[in-house]
Amino acid sequence: MAVSRRLVPNDNISGADRVVWDQTASSSPVSLAAVLWDMDGTLVDTEPYWIATEFELAAEYGATWSDELALQLVGNDLLTSGRFIQRQMGLPLTPEQIVERLLDGVVARVTESVPWRPGARELLADLRTAGVPCALVTMSYQRFAAPIVSALPAGSFQAVVTGDRVEHGKPHPEPYLTAAAELGVDPSRCLAIEDSDTGCRSAEQAGCTVLAVPHHVPVPAGARRVLRPTLAGMRADGLEALLL
């Protein structure tokens, strides 16, 4: 698949990464234009960091929390999670304050150690070598995504869409539509990689095919979903065949 680069203005990306990618015709009826990556649970296994921080917050205020409640938040927009935690724990904090407290905890943890998911970095590197553009599409905020992105080789992502950059979070299609627009590609020619039903619905509604790799929560089958148990061993040249 031939790929060409074209410089464009983009205030959210600097230096050599300030590009969108043009796809030329390929032998496949639908060529792969880009891969759009979820972060938590897909690129990195940070859900335990979020859950540990939630339990710390509950203990600070003498509130009750559980693993079952925590797993209900997987894939959600952070403010949606903040409102849920406020109701369940009965905290004297606004949802915005709860989100900031959670971010403090997870940023501190990820700064010490980034827990990569099996095969994720290897596939991301192979996509870069193959010239397939990638975007990060996460409902975590920029200050949490930044240390993870910085731990990867420069230019791994040509766009980064975070929860504090969009008006509507997952499962709304806005995050994935924003990523495709910033790459200058058609969402129907994008493969999204997700680990939750919430994220899959967001990508599907944007028009993407979804490679679902369940981890902490089950992901049901869907018309535009391809389920796989792991990213380990996957290569860039095998992803185009997954497009639906």
Describe what this molecule looks like in 3D:
The protein has 244 residues and is an alpha/beta fold. It folds into two domains: 3-45 and 116-242, Rossmann fold (3-Layer(aba) Sandwich), CATH 3.40.50; 47-112, DNA polymerase, domain 1. It contains eight helices and eight strands; from the N terminus they run E-E-E-H-H-H-H-H-E-H-E-H-E-H-E-E. The chain has a six-stranded parallel β-sheet with strand order 5-4-3-6-7-8, sandwiched between helices. Strands 1-2 form a two-stranded antiparallel ribbon. The protein is globular. The relative contact order is 0.18. Residues 1-28 have low confidence and may be disordered.
User: Helix proportion of residues, in percent?
Assistant: 25-40%
Structural class: alpha/beta
Work out the strand percent.
5-15%
Count of helices?
8
Biggest sheet details: 6 strands, parallel
- Distance N to C terminus: 18 Å
Order of helices and strands: EEEHHHHHEHEHEHEE
CATH class of the largest domain: Alpha Beta
Q: Could you say what the CATH architecture of the largest domain is?
A: 3-Layer(aba) Sandwich
CATH topology of the largest domain: Rossmann fold
Which spans have pLDDT < 50 for at least 5 consecutive residues? 1-28
- The fourth-level CATH homologous superfamily of the largest domain is HAD superfamily/HAD-like
The overall pLDDT average reads 88
